[in-house]
Design brief:
Number of strands: 9
Structural class: alpha+beta
Shape: globular
Order of helices and strands: HEEEEHEEEEE
Oligomer: single chain
Strand content: over 45%
Largest sheet: 9 strands, antiparallel
């Protein structure tokens, strides 16, 4: 009799564990679609004589959550959409955007998008992560790490962070001290930043 009771007790425990595991699995790999109209990429580049800032539209993206935990994600930036928001002179603004899209910088005709794919998200505090991923610009892929804050919302999740990009690693040589000497006040910093705001829903 004890053997029979033990057998049924074991079955009950196994069933409970299986159900719990299934419930947990149901929470995993929840891919939330980025709302491109509500999300923002804001760039800033500095040079000896000043700086410029602007926006880049998102083409698509996902945030992958396991419950309230960030586990992955991806976003694709549309480089044809790049703008400059600090120059009010229309002609000068147009020249800058044309230059940024040229072979001197992002070669947009050949490489119209830039992509970031999360490879690791390390929790640092509640809702805060060190996110490592592969950033591809001009067909060149390099790993980068930056801090990201993730907030769960009724609709899904929001992720914000500041990405620092070393353009010299992506064959963007124009007026870079990494490739040219004696640039003087024509030198443009290798590092530029992208403030990332992703709004994603179920």
């Amino acid at each position: 009799m004890k053997s029979v009771k033990f057998f049924f007790a074991s079955l009950a425990v196994a069933a409970f564990v299986s159900a719990s595991a299934s419930a947990e699995d149901g929470k995993k790999a929840n891919n939330l679609k980025v709302n491109t109209s509500k999300s923002e990429l804001t760039w800033n580049g500095k040079k000896v004589t000043g700086e410029h800032t602007g926006t880049i539209a998102l083409k698509e993206g996902t945030i992958t959550m396991d419950g309230a935990k960030l586990t992955g994600g991806k976003f694709v930036a549309d480089l044809n959409s790049i703008t400059c928001t600090d120059l009010t002179d229309k002609e000068y603004n147009g020249k800058l955007i044309g230059h940024l899209k040229s072979e001197d910088f992002f070669s947009v005709a050949k490489h119209p998008t830039a992509t970031f794919v999360v490879t690791k998200a390390t929790p640092k505090a509640a809702g805060v992560y060190d996110v490592t991923g592969d950033l591809t610009i001009k067909g060149i892929t390099k790993p980068v790490t930056f801090p990201v804050t993730v907030k769960s919302t009724a609709a899904g999740a929001e992720a914000t962070g500041k990405l620092v990009v070393d353009r010299s690693k992506y064959d963007i040589k124009y007026n870079s001290k990494s490739f040219f000497e004696n640039l003087g006040d024509k030198m443009i910093n290798d590092d530029f930043t992208i403030d990332v705001k992703l709004v994603a829903g179920k």
